[in-house]
Amino acid sequence: MPDFCAAYGCSNRLSLKTRAHGITFHRFPKTGEMRRQWELALRRDGFVAADRTLLCSEHFSSEDFDRTGRINP
Predict the structure, then answer these.
(1) pTM, whole model, 2 decimals?
(2) Which domain of life does this protein belong to (predicted)?
């Protein structure tokens, strides 16, 4: 089953082609306020993310990524 980006109008799907273009896919946070912020940021009325819902890196700015390699508790 192919995995597609949940952003409205985005046709990116998880594949070797998108990976070759440097596009990465990210699951919604499991619970809490951060998950709700992601859902609201999509601006889709009544949208609720499932456990496998993905967003592609095209919808993030470079500042959104933690490149330090440290894991935050």
Answers:
(1) 0.76
(2) Eukaryota
Strands annotated E in the chain:
25-27, 54-56
Query: Between the CA of residue 28 and those of 17, 20, 40, 62, what are the distances in Å?
Result: 22, 23, 12, 17
Chain centroid to Cα 38, Å, comes to: 8
> With 70 as the cut, is the pLDDT of residue 63 above it?
yes
Domain ranges, ordered by start, for the chain: 16-64
* Residues near 8 by beta carbon (within 8 Å), at least 6 away in sequence: 42, 43, 44
Mean pLDDT (whole number) for 33-62:
89
b/e sequence 30-51, b meaning 16+ C-beta within 10 Å: eeeeebeebbeebeeeeeebee
